[in-house]
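Today's session is about reading a structure prediction critically. Students often jump straight to the picture, but the first step is always the sequence itself: look for stretches that repeat, for charged clusters, for runs of hydrophobic residues. Only then move on to the predicted structure, which in these notes is written as discrete structure tokens rather than atom positions. Here is the chain we will use throughout the hour.
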Amino acid sequence: MPLLTAAILAAAALVGLAILARTALTAWNGWLDLQRARIGEPGTVSALGMIDLSDIKERLRKLEAIAAGVDL
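Below is the predicted structure for this chain, in token form.
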């Protein structure tokens, strides 16, 4: 009887470990997808990237105007 109990306990622990590993893998993949969405895939232009680029261009234009002595 103790051998059967140990086998059932070992099987339950193995199933629990498999469930935990699957959950961790799913969470990891979700985190990676989130990071990919945040930085954007290579070769694609995100709306946030375009806003940042236009903001940088506007700042550069203002700095060039200041360097040239033009009042804005």
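Discussion point for the tutorial: The radius of gyration is 28 Å.
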